[in-house]
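Hi there, hope your week has been kind to you so far. Please have a think about how the structure follows from the sequence. I've dropped the whole record in just underneath, so have a look:

_____
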Amino acid sequence: MKNIKLVIEYIGTKYCGFQRQKNGLSIQEVLEEAIKLATGETVVTYPSGRTDAGVHALGQVVNFFTNSSIQADKMPIVINYHLPNDIKVLSSCEVEDNFNARKSAIKKTYIYKIFNCRQLSVFDEGRAIPFGFQLDIDEMKKACNKFIGTHDFSSFVSTGTSTKSTIRTIYNCEINKENNYVYLTITGNGFLYNMVRIIVGTLLDIGIKKTSLEMLDTLLQGNNRKLAGRTVKPDGLYLKEVYY
């Protein structure tokens, strides 16, 4: 039996998230059905993480075990034939039996896309969020620098979420503006539920001077969810890359 690693991309707009759900169509369900049609086997895919409803991926990683005779590097051809246009396998390879897409990951990079105008372009519908207020990008860059390092991110997790620890390490966090688009790129050893979306909401508040850099220092000391920014919509969130 071979352990196959896939790198996939998808537009998550019409899906209930990566993980199978009883109340909607998931990326996992569609992917596993395509693998079944390609190999003749019923498999379980193990993702690097469960992206939420409406979240996209440029480089999600999954692994699965198979007895198929199809060469590992040919998997994208046969699987993509059975996938819809909004899900694609980019690459595949055989890995060691002990490789697990989630447990073997050491860090991840996410991107969040903001269209800095009141009216969202039709080409970005479901793939970015509009924000029509003028932003102080320099102030947002200073705020990004404060996220770098190891902190208690309990202020940046949805209330009611159960987790063993809210301590996470951020290796890189930066804001860039290109024409009307503002991009947050953030890399960390792990992310709490809705953590990136709350960070974006907080950065937008800082960009319009609703929240100060001093308040951000307080938030990074933990346990002040009510003082952090709102949880922005999932539309602009992309899992860019998973590192091993």
Observations:
- The chain has a mean pLDDT of 96.
